[in-house]
UniProtKB/TrEMBL annotation:
<dbReference type="InterPro" id="IPR036010">
    <property type="entry name" value="2Fe-2S_ferredoxin-like_sf"/>
</dbReference>
<keyword id="KW-0479">Metal-binding</keyword>
<keyword id="KW-0408">Iron</keyword>
<protein>
    <submittedName>
        <fullName>(2Fe-2S)-binding protein</fullName>
    </submittedName>
</protein>
<dbReference type="InterPro" id="IPR001041">
    <property type="entry name" value="2Fe-2S_ferredoxin-type"/>
</dbReference>
<keyword id="KW-0411">Iron-sulfur</keyword>
<dbReference type="InterPro" id="IPR001055">
    <property type="entry name" value="Adrenodoxin-like"/>
</dbReference>
<dbReference type="Pfam" id="PF00111">
    <property type="entry name" value="Fer2"/>
</dbReference>
<comment type="similarity">
    <text>Belongs to the adrenodoxin/putidaredoxin family.</text>
</comment>
<keyword id="KW-0001">2Fe-2S</keyword>
<feature type="domain" description="2Fe-2S ferredoxin-type">
    <location>
        <begin position="2"/>
        <end position="105"/>
    </location>
</feature>
<dbReference type="InterPro" id="IPR012675">
    <property type="entry name" value="Beta-grasp_dom_sf"/>
</dbReference>
Length: 106
């Protein structure tokens, strides 16, 4: 099981346990866990509505690809610890990370 922590927009923390063999990305898991994430583009790194801030474990994640970086560059509240949840595949690299949901709901 992959264990990670999610902080919602209200500051509420919840620990999630996700089966390693699940073939999903973090955005899909967050939506399935009833977090409010629009994911307008369906996970194509084209809308940034699944923007998360990585509070812990950023150094263990793969480097963002150019398309993700380009989209993050359009966000006024993105920082060096920002990622798009749709671009983070559920695997052992996510073990122990802590993310805060930042994406817009509009």
């Amino acid at each position: 099981m992959i264990k990670l922590t999610v902080v919602d927009r209200n500051g509420t923390e919840q620990k999630l346990e996700i089966p390693e063999e699940i073939n999903l990305n973090l955005m899909e898991v967050l939506k399935a866990s009833d977090y409010e994430i629009l994911a307008n583009c369906g996970g194509m790194a084209l809308c940034a509505t699944c923007h998360v801030q990585v509070l812990e474990g950023l150094d263990q994640l793969p480097e963002p690809q150019d398309q993700e970086m380009d989209m993050l560059d359009t966000l006024p509240n993105a920082g060096s610890d920002s990622r798009l949840a749709c671009q983070l595949r559920i695997n052992e690299q996510l073990e122990g990370i802590k993310v805060k949901i930042k994406g817009d709901l509009v």
